[in-house]
From TrEMBL:
The keyword Transferase does not apply. This is Anaphase-promoting complex subunit 4. Residues 744-799 are annotated as: Disordered. PANTHER family: ANAPHASE PROMOTING COMPLEX SUBUNIT 4 APC4, ANAPHASE-PROMOTING COMPLEX SUBUNIT 4. It comes from Pipra filicauda. Pfam families: ANAPC4 (PF12896), ANAPC4_WD40 (PF12894), WD40_APC4_C-half (PF23405).
């Protein structure tokens, strides 16, 4: 019986350019040339969901990475320079952010270092959950509301934040671009000093070292040189508890900014264009009327004498109409009520939570012994707190304007409705006919304030009136408000104006009466981003280059290979704190796999080590008895776990029907002598491929941990040692086979199935199930016999 059990095979309609196994589930994420991101389950390689490309996110996927808990999938897009965090349960974007350059590689790691301080922080309940009310879910009836904030029964924000234990998304791009994002959301380091376009990244689990593989090209037609950099990130390691606390605060702040942004977007959607109808009708009336009487006087005459000019009658009865007036009144009341609720329940609660977290961050910044080295600046955070205060003031101003407008419009429309009914000689209900002197004064004040013709307003906005005052606050413009609030006679304003000391007091939030809510919000976002950017710059400047090794040059033929499938491959051994680099060097027409070892502690001089691996004849003879001593080239290699490397091999003899091989390479068979890989004497002035003959070589004889891949021109492999699975992709990038790598005894398998059945019965969400009819094996099918993926239906994650 061959090693490894095949559990699925598929011929895909589009070329696959990226594939990445989930660290916790039997799921694999794929990205194809069409820009589609797909999720498949292990069993029968059945599709769970697909996320098609769109204009908002982008169409050119350049990198994939899973969060260590397997609940979030991140992918980078080159055309829009955006990073999208997607929910594993359904194809929806939970969070996204922009970067300066297109991403070519991403790595998402979890910190495994333990300390008493960290343990107490991990176990302590977040005080903000005790002190702050839970943010209300945003209404689902708005098109732009993100799903993260509109689920009533689940705390989607906490799902996005994930576990308290620190994890970091490391992004690498062109021109030496490297950034580190805590919890995949907020930038905590901008790394400089690396040359070339990033081909691989690996941040050690103790945060002491960052390994980077880059492709350096002098000109567009020259050969690219693959270079290995090891960077010392010991500042992150030394201040791990402080970095974790700071990063947690940053992600809370980032999430709240998104919540406020979406709340404001909902408010903009609640405001309707129909509310501008009164302004446009009155402007048209001014342009068409022949009399010199002003619009204000026309309405005043109607109010005082109950008689309207023929022109005003035509405007009211033919253009506005009784039915239109009722509809306009209902729209204003409905719209203003919705906006008012959003301001009170969402905008204010989000702003207050933001104020709380920034105040806590300021307290951390004042503890200079702990946080000054990380770049936390108390004065910058104070500015951010002040900006949030100004935003809250502006939100309160909007509430006052809404309240005032609702009262004004209600009185005005009630009076005008009765007047129009009288014009049409319809019956007026007795309760509508009652109008006190106070009501008349109220309507007269409204007409005086809102119905003045303003030629300068026409030049600016194309209308003479601004009766509707709420919409101007929701415009995303830099211009001043058309009708700012009237502060004349306000005792508090007069008191501040006359007090030189209070005017500049840090205890008072600045007020911008001339600006819109959108403008103050953008100003707040800019100040907060600037304040939280400083730690990223300070931590980035602390990173220093420890090692730079030129590995080899790549030929022009290799340049057409998709980026994901280009070796080298980086791996971090969490137990022994060692970085491994896998790459191949062509030697005598054979691609030999080379293993480079470096300790994460850059101060250790014994960390250098390199070894070449070739595969012995036993493997050859097992496949082809007539061969004498054929050699095998390594096509692809990935670490399966800390002790094993999974490789795809091909016979190096040119002949028809030569088979490809999937094999497991135990490191114990390679490192038989602890010091054998340290016999090579390094010379930083020469590339490794120029001295490949001097590199110590280990010949490995594989016994039963290999399998022939019949009827498949296998080229690439993606593996997951935690779930004990692998996915092999053909050279045409469309044919995939999925294997279970560690086949257990039947008794163990039955026991595992019983456990899964129990978990499904109890409703555990982390295990994926599949209907029995979809479990049919496809083992042994040739590529021609395989069903095309376009014929299958998607299945959900839930049983």
């Amino acid at each position: 019986m061959p090693a490894f059990r095949q559990v699925g095979e598929k011929q895909l309609p589009q070329e696959v350019v990226f594939m990445c196994w989930s660290p916790k589930r039997d799921l694999i994420a794929l990205a194809n040339r069409a820009g589609e991101v797909l999720l498949h389950r292990l069993a029968n390689f059945q599709r769970v969901w697909s996320l098609p490309p769109n204009e908002n996110t982008g169409k050119e996927v350049t990198a994939l990475a899973w969060r260590p808990d397997g609940k979030i999938l991140a992918f980078g897009l080159a055309d829009t320079k955006r990073i999208i965090l997607c929910d594993v349960e359904k194809p929806e974007s939970l969070h996204s952010f922009s970067v300066d350059l297109s991403i070519t590689y991403m790595h998402w790691m979890e910190v495994t270092e333990e300390s008493s301080v960290l343990t107490s922080f991990y176990n302590a309940e977040d005080e903000s959950n005790l002190l702050l009310p839970k943010l209300p879910a945003l209404p689902k009836n708005y098109s732009t509301t993100a799903k993260i904030f509109s689920e009533e029964k689940s705390d989607e924000i906490m799902k996005l934040l994930g576990d308290v234990r620190l994890n970091a998304l490391v992004l690498g791009g062109s021109s030496g671009f490297i950034e580190i994002y805590a919890y995949g959301m907020f930038k905590i380091a901008t790394v400089n000093g690396v040359a070339g376009s990033c081909r691989g990244l690996c941040l050690s689990s103790d945060l002491k070292s960052l390994s980077v593989i880059t492709e350096i090209r002098d000109s567009s037609d020259s050969e690219a040189e693959i270079t290995y950099f090891q960077l010392d990130t010991s500042l992150l390691s030394s201040y791990l508890p402080e970095v974790t606390r700071m990063a947690r605060k940053f992600t809370h702040i980032s999430t709240l900014l998104q919540y406020i942004k979406l709340s404001l977007t909902c408010m903009c959607e609640a405001w309707e264009e129909i509310l501008m109808q009164m302004d446009s009708r009155l402007t048209k009336f001014v342009q068409e009327k022949n009399t010199t009487t002003s619009v204000q006087d026309e309405f005043m005459q109607l109010l005082l004498w109950g008689k309207a000019s023929l022109e005003l009658q035509a405007l009211l009865m033919n253009q506005l109409t009784v039915k239109g007036l009722k509809k306009l009144g209902q729209s204003i009341e409905s719209s203003y009520s919705s906006i008012q609720k959003l301001v009170i329940s969402h905008l204010q609660s989000g702003s207050e939570a933001l104020l709380y977290h920034l105040s806590e961050l300021k307290g951390m910044a004042l503890w200079k012994q702990k946080y000054e080295s990380l770049g936390l600046d108390a004065s910058g955070i104070e500015e951010a707190i002040t900006a949030v205060g100004s935003f809250i003031l502006k939100a309160n101003e909007l509430l006052q304007v809404i309240d005032s407008s609702m009262k004004n419009f209600k009185a005005f429309f009630r009076w005008l409705y009765v007047a129009m009914l009288r014009m049409s000689e319809d019956h007026v209900l007795p309760e509508l006919n009652k109008m006190t002197q106070k009501d008349i004064t109220f309507v007269a004040d409204f007409l005086t304030e809102h119905f003045n013709e303003a030629p300068e307003l026409y030049n600016r906005k194309g209308k003479y009136f601004n009766v509707e005052r709420v919409g101007q606050y929701l415009k995303d413009e830099d211009d001043d408000l058309v009708s700012p609030p009237n502060t004349e006679g306000n005792q508090w304003f007069n008191f501040l104006k006359n007090s030189t000391h209070l005017k500049e007091s840090p205890l008072l939030f600045p007020y911008y009466p001339e600006k819109s809510l959108h403008f103050v919000k953008r100003q707040m976002e800019g100040i907060i981003d600037q304040c939280l950017q400083k730690p990223a710059d300070v931590i980035g400047r602390s990173v220093r280059q420890a090692v730079c090794l030129s590995l080899y040059k790549i030929s022009q033929s290799e340049d057409s290979t998709p980026q994901l499938f280009k070796l080298p491959f980086l791996w971090n051994d969490k137990t022994s704190n060692i970085h491994y680099v896998l790459f191949t060097i062509l030697e005598n027409s054979i691609s030999k796999i080379h293993i480079l070892r470096r300790h994460t502690d850059t101060s250790r001089s014994v960390s250098n080590g390199i070894l070449a691996v070739e595969f012995g004849n036993i493997l050859n003879n097992s496949i082809n008895e007539s061969s004498d001593s054929r050699c095998y080239s390594c096509l692809d290699a990935h670490f399966y776990d800390d002790e094993t490397v999974t490789v795809v091999l091909k016979e190096n003899v040119e002949q028809e029907g030569k088979e490809r091989i999937l094999a497991q390479l135990p490191l114990s068979s390679v490192y038989t002598d602890e010091d054998q890989d340290r016999k090579f004497i390094w010379d930083s002035t020469e590339r490794l491929d120029e001295r490949s003959g001097e590199i110590p070589t280990c010949t490995v004889f594989l016994e039963n941990q290999w399998r022939v891949l019949e009827n498949m021109k296998a080229q690439y492999v993606s593996v997951n040692g935690i779930r004990k699975v692998s996915c092999v992709l053909s050279s045409n990038l469309r044919h995939v086979r999925v294997f279970e790598m560690d086949v257990e005894d039947d008794g163990e398998v039955e026991e595992e199935e019983e456990e899964e059945a129990t978990q499904i019965a109890t409703g555990e969400p982390d295990e994926l199930t599949q209907p029995a009819e979809n479990q049919d094996s496809m083992c042994g099918a040739s590529a021609e016999e395989l069903p095309d993926e376009t014929e299958e239906h998607e299945t959900g994650l839930d049983p």
